[in-house]
Amino acid sequence: MLCAMSSRICAVIVLALAAGHCAVAQEPAKAEGKTETVRVSGRIVSPAGIPILSRNVVFRRLMGARLKDSTVSTDKDGRFVFDAELRAEYEVRLELSKTTSTGIGTFVIADGSAFALGDMVMETPAEESPFLRFAGPVKVDGTAGKRSAHGSARNASGGSIAALYFDCGTVASHFCGNGTVHILLGDGSEVKPPRLKDQVQSSHPIISDSKTAAGWLADYDGCCQSYPLSMKLVIYRVGKAQCEFTGDGRGIFGWHFLKDGKQVAFNQDFTHGTSYPHYELRNVENCGLLDMQDGDADKPPAWVSEFDGGEEN
């Protein structure tokens, strides 16, 4: 189960991911055999608002071990458009040259027909690498929880979760996940959960099928590896306090929702040496422990077997 994540993430809309993880991901939702998509758009400009044209924007689909890059270019107005799969996690970056790039973000979108990143300002501080700053506005259109003409939300909870992303902040990086976590609700509102104490970045965001919960891994610097390690699983629930899980205190190497978002499972292990995994099954409603397992059993429960069964549907 041990492996290293290939990237750090900048903006997860969900925009986010980080080096040092190997997590089970959810497959995008499908209807009538066809993958559902959402139109992702944005605009790259200079600090003076001048469009930056003919620059390649790379979308990397991060689903388990399968990585897929798609490249689009900015037009004369600095705009780009990309059709992303709903519920798939993407890392996004801007090519600066044939050999260098800077992170834009990582995102997951669970609802809506269009996801607008708004303006992203490319700044180049003296003697430093360029980075992108979100000027926005960032929004999701066409969601089930969108407000009606009378101004009331269709979703009684105030809006289900439509998208989640991590911005890059003001850090120049090929990959980045050290910015703010942003959660966009279907009624148009936005939530910014606080960064945890000593946390250096966020990674691997997932939105539950019910769109009432979303989660990500909180990564920390450690004494024994050169990359940040996921030490906490954070679960945001619409209208409720968030859950924070640390398990047995080791690194978290995989997690996913079960039962339409009512439960969450994660596994932990040593970063080096002999594998001896720890698994936990948690109730999302009250954050309580439902089941756990240490080591590999001959006949593990179904929720543990899913960690070795590929990507979750």
How many H/I helices?
A: 1
Helix content: under 10%
Number of strands: 22
CATH-level-2 architecture: Sandwich
Q: Class by helix and strand content? A: mainly beta
Radius of gyration: 19 Å
CATH superfamily: Transthyretin/hydroxyisourate hydrolase domain
Q: Spatial order of the strands in the main sheet?
A: 5-4-7-8-12-13-14
Mean pLDDT: 82
Strand residue percentage = 35-45%
The global form is: globular
Largest sheet: number of strands, sense, barrel closure? 7 strands, antiparallel
Oligomer: single chain
The total number of structural domains is 1
CATH class: Mainly Beta
Order of helices and strands: EEEEEEEEEEEEEEEEEEEEEEH
Distance between the termini: 19 Å
Enumerate the spans where pLDDT stays under 50 for 5 or more consecutive residues: 1-32, 147-157
At CATH level 3, the topology is Immunoglobulin-like
Characterise the protein shown here.
This protein has 313 residues and is an all-beta fold. The chain has a single domain, classed as Sandwich (Immunoglobulin-like). The chain contains one helix and 22 strands. The chain has one helix at residues 302-305, and strands spanning 30-31, 34-35, 37-45, 56-63, 66-73, 79-85, 89-95, 101-109, 114-123, 131-136, 139-141, 161-166, 181-185, 190-191, 201-207, 213-220, 229-237, 243-245, 251-258, 263-269, 278-283, 289-294. It has a seven-stranded antiparallel sheet, with no helix packed on it. β20 and β21 (278-283) form a beta hairpin. It is globular. The two termini are 19 Å apart. Mean pLDDT is 82; it is low at 1-32 and 147-157.
